[in-house]
Batch of 4 targets.
Target 1
Amino acid sequence: MKHYNLVIAAMLSLTSFAAAQPHRPNIILIVADDLDNRSVAYMPNLKTLIAEQGVTFSNYFNNVPLCGPSRASILRGQFAHNTQIQTNQLPDGGFEKFRDLGHENSTVATWLQAAGYRTALFGKYLNGYPANQQQTYVPKGWDEWYGTMEGHFFNYDINENGKIVSYGNRPEDYETDVLARHATDFIKRNKAVPFFIYLAPFAPHSPHTPAPRHQNAFPGITAPRLPSFNESNVGDKPQWVRRLPLLTGNDVATIDLNYRERLQSLLAADDMIKSLIDTLAAIQELDDTYIFFTSDNGFHLGEHRIANGKNTAYDEAAHLPLIVRGPGVPKGKTVEHFVQNLDYAPTFAEFAGVRAPSFVDGRSFAPLLKDNPPPINTWRPGALIEHWGKETNDRTPTLQALRTADYLYVEYQTGERELYDVRNDPYQLRSLHASADPTLISQLAQQLDVLRKCAGGGCLTTAVEEKKQSELPPNFELRQNYPNPFSPLGRGTFSNPATTIHFSLPVSEHVTLKIFDLNGQEIKTLVQQNLPAGEHRVTFDAGGMASGVYFYRITTPTFSQTRKAILMQ
């Protein structure tokens, strides 16, 4: 259909030249602003036109849960400790620092532009843009530029290719709709060449004003009342959370109102998705276009007593939606591999047939968009989350965190720590940092220390090696003979208090086997010694234990596994 920039020279036929060129698809990246992971459920077009036609990444995390640093990582393919964009404003972040460091000389936009792509940005660039620069300033790498300069849905200005255009408060001036019209017009005008669109609407960021046509949507809806909502007991958490008061009735009412407005504002973004799909289909480019939908960071809506905001390592702020459709992408599939926002740039570079610069920390996840992705044990084992508590009124201290499929491990500059078993405690209610096996803490701390210092290719090599070291042996087994809370004699009768835990070891190792209650308090140590390879059985008397949920964990120098058991006396 297109995608070959042909220069016909003497003695070179059109056919032979075209055959030598790599296929280069269109790329559209849609980045919402402050979108929490759960709210995408209220975007029907996103569901039917992208999710059901593509893949959803269940383990997508950003590096810094904050607008500016996150967007810098998208553009450069680096962790924030390498972009040096740590906050939204000077002296530690923002547009001016990004520009002054020379980062605009080499971004995913400049790489793709040099490869023959037509590049365009619509919406939010970086916090603080254009700052003290001339308002008509356009960064390098963009063939067309529609950069917004204020965070408003009405009454705002856009730098449209070096000309300042003002928009008012008419329904047709609604920011998301304006960006959608510009983006679809760009697509129609550039169907003869490959294009890259970075589309960044303001929704659902505060003041989350809905389009007039959506202002009555979702009547009576309330924010999700998750187990972590207005968390009653935060004694396990660091001091900055313990200082937060319980939410009042007025607080909850405000959260509910904000939640409804956020969902309402997303409906125009959902309409935008349909307009993009319809336009691509009309010019026969839909099957040759990758569309990525995500957010710059998540958002708290009352979880852990946090009425609003981001800047935390909890899943509400760091665990984001990532949904992709495109050529060769399987339909309706969920991918569990870990991906971060620094992975977009190398992925898009691979699509364009260019090599990403050596400074890039991220990894192309193009292989994950196929029917047979690489095994998880060859991929990134987890995500690095960072935050620098330097901005005014920032209540969260500086932190670095490691999020894996099993754990969220957080280290604060204050010396405090958190550790959550996210498989058994998905809402991160009970930190186990005080009771966890020291070997496990040490392993997580070592992985975190490597990642927070890594740069370039070193981030990839280390991650794969760590995954191989922490993977379970193929013939390891852990089970118990009493998983059922009801005995054959009926409820209330505990006929067999003797419980046996079975496990097998492929090699001789030092083994620690402990039981913990739901609060992470250690109940008893069953094993703490060197054991030979082979099958092992540990029997203990559970008769003196109260009814409830318990966890037992086996830990060796090379792996750790946790299981849950329910006991009814």
Note: The chain has 13 helices and 23 strands.
Target 2
Amino acid sequence: MTIRSYLEKFAKKTPLTVALKFFVGKKWQERTYAEFLLEVRQTAQAYGTTFSLKPREENVAMILPNSPTWLEVYLACSGAGVSVVPIDPKLHNDEVAYILGDSDAVVVTTDRAHLDMMRTIVPNLPSVRAVVLADGEGSYEAIGTVPVHSLAALCADVRDTSWYDAHVAATDDVASIIYTSGTTGKPKGAMLTHGNFTADAEGALEAFNESITSADSFLVVLPLFHAFSFCANFVVPLLTGSGMYFVRSLYTIGEDVKLLRPTVVMGVPLLAEKIFDKIEAKLKSSKKARFLMKIGLRKLVFGAVKKGLGGRLRFMIVGGAPCPKHVLEGFKNLGITMLEGYGLTECSPVVSIAGPKCARIGTIGMKIANIEIRLADQNEQGVGELQVKGPITMKGYWHNAAATEEAFDGEWLKTGDLASVAGDGLITICGRKKALIVNREGKNIYPEEVENHLATDPLIADCIVVGYTTGGIPGEKVGCVVHPDMDMLAEQNGGKAVAWDKAVQIAKDHVHKRCQELADYKRIRKIVVLEEPLVRTSIQKVKRVAYKGTLDE
């Protein structure tokens, strides 16, 4: 199977089913599966003939925010066997230049917001022979000898779609080259095939063990250049013939959920946490809700909560980073099914998922149906490195044989995550192998465990736990970097802002208090309080590498 075959199947089977809903031109618009396929065919024809693309030989890149255009350009190229390099629109010039140069991208599809970037970096990228602006209007001056096209103009007169028909991607063709930001060195491009993505989507659905059909709709919030969102919000809906509904922005999610009324929401823990915090704040401020809960009419309150989320929501699924237990428990108490998944880019990316019938808070569910897993180098507690074998593992890293060899142990892909597996098959992630803190007594401390404990404190907005050394002496101590919730501090101070010096002390006191509930060797020995929020990745996961070594003395 290929991603293209999913689209073609439902364009034929249910051509009038709404595939896409999106906001453009000051109004909500829809595109059926038949219309979606037509856009893909025309875009493929325009790209293939205008740029003389060579399937299985050349790569193209995209630097775009979420939109139907993102999906159409992607399928137009990858569906014809041309590998696509999706790039985070928030990356800086030198980061984008490196990825474009390393991937040998021949065409870059972006938007007007990135035109100045293109003018700066394209002259030094000999492989690039064209730039396309998805939101371009009119004509644009070439960048040296490299033409700049408007996508609308490029596709305007396309009627013949024979190029698309003549070039069909195969299961083993590389669909995406996704660059992952490693803890050291330059980003590496994970080559993921059509077969990788389709096997992952099908295995995840089987493991999920719940029916998702064309009657369902997915809320597209997370950036599609990220592997989790790509699979969860694009490949899975195409597999099931479901709708993909785009939010206008991160600031309009609350309104858009009510308007679009999705049945499935895929998100990262930070998004789930923010939604939960808003729900909790509303419930606390509502005397009626508190009264109904008190007299046992919780279902009435739950119904109102679900109505505020559109009224059709069946599942909320989070991945990309561990979700704090209090958020999972909070949604469960509100009667909302919230589940965790786990994966990594090199596995296309889903490795495990918690289905409604096999969920246990604190675990990441069971492995998906069509793969094998094992724990390497297990310790006496049964914790070892999680390794994966099966049709979802990447083909390798682009132009990087050494890194590819390092990533595998024979046929087994090394995830770099430490895990344990219970007798019923439920997997628990204990932490990153590289993030593991080992103290002078040889005891293992998993930063994520301590972070989840601290995250239950409402005055701590953000935190990261890192190991540090003193005077270069072997053996790490446990430290943390904290960002306090100044709004919550002000609320507890009668609405008055708290002086920074006092806020620092309060934050430290709260960390120490929370640590009293932990074993002594897990307790925080050094605390750094920051006024600014912690550095995060594009999917809002705290960038651990940014704080590695910062507490060393």
Note: The radius of gyration is 24 Å.
Target 3
Amino acid sequence: MADDAGCSILHVDMDAFYASVEIRDRPELAGQPVIVGGASGRGVVLSASYQARAFGVRSAMPVARARRMCPRAVFVAPRHRLYAAVSKEVMAIFGTVTPTVEPLALDEAFLDVSGALRRLGPPAAIARHIRAQVVGQQGITCSVGVAPTKFVAKIASARCKPDGLLVVPRAGVLEYLHALPASALWGVGERTGEVLARLGLRTVADIAHTPLATLQRELGMAQGSHLAALAWGRDERRVTPHVPEKSIGAEETFAADIGDPQRIRRELLKLSGRTARSLRAGGYAARTVSVKLRLASFKTMTRSRTLAYPTDVAREIYATACALYESSGLDRGARLRLVGVRVSGLVPASGANAQLTFDDRPVGWREAERAADRIASRFGARAIRPAALVEGTDGPDEDALLAARGSTLPSGVSTLVSWKLNRVCEVKDHRTRAGRKGFSMGGVVPLSEHEQRQLEQIEQALYREDPKFGRLVRSSDPRVHYKRKLAQARVVTHHVYLEAAAAVVLLLSLVWAVISWRRHLARVRPAKPAGATARAKGQVRHPGQTRRARMMERMEERWRRRQEGDRRM
């Protein structure tokens, strides 16, 4: 065993992780070429046993190509929940050794064991202890690289697979590195490899002895400086237990190329929901939304847009993703083989400032989606989804019909709650019939009394989880809807009666006011002379006599004036 003094960095990498877990659970697969991946021709290989790798099968390879390369391979559908649970147990083993653990994926992690040397011994002994614990507790193997830096430790773990241990002493780092091909360095991909090959640089030693200025001129300042430092074994990065996420996203490869914009938007909706759930689970909000579009010709396009404020709401991410898709410049009917949604510019959700528009409500989409997250955590990820995704032909996963741990769902029944806009619009019941597996999303079928009681139990469980959400679910029942309409009709009728009664009272009050006013005027008006009253009555009763009387009075007046004039003369 090489000298491990000063080699406090360990890189632990599980051997063919997904395939090893499947072989552990199905011993009859031991010794056979096992490939874990999608069953369709568009699927990719997620993991391959070393028997399959002998035929050239590698991770990320199309399943169709892997099937041609290894016709006798046993293809196994992935079980991501199981892999995540096993990974959690493996990481717990690492945590018993040192708290300084930096997970890179489900199946690999960096460990800094400098603080565990006095308790567990030298780094090589700690690596053997970790390997024994993983085999004893999980029944799968891992490979461990021990080195003074993260970069060298990762190379060492890859060079000692499967089920190996390799220690690169501090004094032998350059000797070990310089014998490796140039492709072993981080950041050397296909294009960078072509540039290095054009310069005649085949090994790490060739890169190390190339002038820095040449590397920077050919590869760029950052890339050239990076490769030069790695070629001399310089890696100043430390093991960071909690590495902040830089971006979160999801993507989907279609079984067949699709060109229907409506289907593409539905896929964007599904991916936006997955991305938003990941954001909320990590406590982040994102500022930038990106869309990845891969054509049938394998040409890949990416479009991104920065929002005015960070968000973790699927509705806002989906709206931005659709806008990016529509403005991508694709020809009408262009067929896509892959669609992806990714968000970046992550900030803590607690410090994100959400901007409210005039038509927004204080409690809206964010609260509704968080309530949906709580329901999904209890009843399964597929228990709740947007209504636009309900009409798909794909049924739920086999484990989607199983209630989550601690759930109060009745056995064999899974609730599918669908919402559209701001309200829940339907609740459907689906089950796997005895003797055959199937999923039906057909028309509404009358439920038996037993099934109705089961659904009522589900609604009660939802109501206990979130009363507001439970009320929305209950409101989707047609009977509840009818009762609500009936109650609204009763309220409207009651209001009509009240308004009619108020109008009658108002009219009576007006009549009473007029009568009272006339009586008041009769009391306060002064009495007229009897003659005047009689004349007034006569005038009213005999209009012709009134005119003759007036004419007689005028004639008498003239007669008196004439007589007075004669007297004066």
Note: The radius of gyration is 43 Å.
Target 4
Amino acid sequence: MKRLLYFALMIVMVITLCNCATATPTAEPTEKPPPTNTPVPAATDTPVPPPPTDTPIPEPTDFDDGTYVVAMYSDFADWDPATAYSLEIWFLYNVYEPLLWYNPPGSEELFTPALATSWETSDDGLTWTFHLREGVTFHDGTPFNAEAVKYSIERTIEIGGGAAWIWGAVDEIEAQDEHTVVFHLSYAAPLDLIASSQYQAYIFSPTSAEKGTDWFMEGHDAGTGPYMVESWAPDQQTVLVKYDDYWGGWEGHHFSKVILKTVLEQSTQVQMLESGEADRATLVPIDSLDGLMANTDISVNIVPSWMNSQFLINVQKPPTDDPLVRQALCYAWDYETVVNDIYNGMATVAEGIIPKTMWGHNDDLELYEFDLDKAKELLAQAGYEPGDLKLDIAYIGTSAEYENAALLLQQNLAEIGVELELKPGPWTTIWEEAKSLDTAPNLQSMTWWPTYPTPNDWIYGLFRTEDPTLFNLSHYSNLEMDALFDEAMVLEATDRDEAIKKYDEIQQILLDDAAAIFYADINSRITRRADVAGAVTNPAYGAEYFYNLARKQ
């Protein structure tokens, strides 16, 4: 479902890639469906006027900083903003705009107005009114207005692709006047967060969209953003050029052209970055990091993301249907060694299912720690002697991180008399097998990141009762937790503090039930030329916002 290719490539180098969030949602390819003014979470480059940086931006004059080149690890597969749900975030984020942008951590406000300048909601969270920016045009010259918002979201919902499920609460969209749009919901939902999603929240020109998906798939765009698509050469490069009539203007220093060049080889990306042929590399191997950090022409930034990894434990397949066995597995996992040695410090030990940098994370969880004696004790309580148990674990075979973590667990379990069979394979194969109890393993690798900024994404996608199974590969079903989750999701729109309390409870339930080994909150590695200024990291968007960037003078 959500960005399978993106994930597969990403997890191969799990932490080598560009930056994330984050992105979708997911899983390995993640996931999910439906469903927050809450504390700003942790940290790609957000579309707000360039914030203060350590590099001063030149005086406001219309200045062309030339071309910015990004070495991408894959080409784009979907050009329709109503359905694009993966690596496409790199052009979506710069060519299109949503109603709101979600701000990076440390910001005074949770949102920055994009195509909406203000908004309000009814006390019951069922009616949301957005007041729209005036004087905006789409790249095809069509004026932006309330009818365009209504058309875009309704077309996205009707097609039902990508993350269209985020609009599941919408009952009706009313274009009240030229610059006012009202969303009437069938149940309370945090439409401000939803409207800032990195997928399926973009507004596009009805004039161009009427040409259909086939027209988009030729590499055309219909956005309002600062850049427009000039050309697309499949599997080679995409060229974006500045939209002269962008409502934000072009005062100050900006790149007038951006080239997203498909470069599959990691070593080639590094060479391009070192030589200056590329300004940004998105797939840098770990063993190149020290050399790049020593190069004064290169900037390497390690930042938190909203991506995390876990091994889901099958709660219905013997012997992991026994909670004591599952808890023993959680104690047999060497958390510190995995993040420090296997992930080379490019991750931190997870504390439950919600990343520590996401709002709603419970800081007071009772956690597992590496303790083989405790694991052995729990297995004895479950009635197992050394040599009795045989388990299996499935993971993406091209990921060195998954492979080495599984090998370490195998070694640890062997010390307490448990045999662990390793089952590496391609994601598409192991995913299909994991969905069926007849072929599912006892443990299944999973990496997840959200579609929009909400903790419910992980819970809904991975652990809410699911039939048929999609990403709940633990085959976990807890009706009490489901009810708690449903309450929390609605409260996100009306009382987020109360919603957080319920999410806190859910996070501890999942740990107590040992539905997974939660082990790594992933950091993103961002490598670019040191003469580029203006970048701001934001885990809500898994790409760079080119409009903020400038060449140091």
Note: The first helix runs from residue 4 to 12.
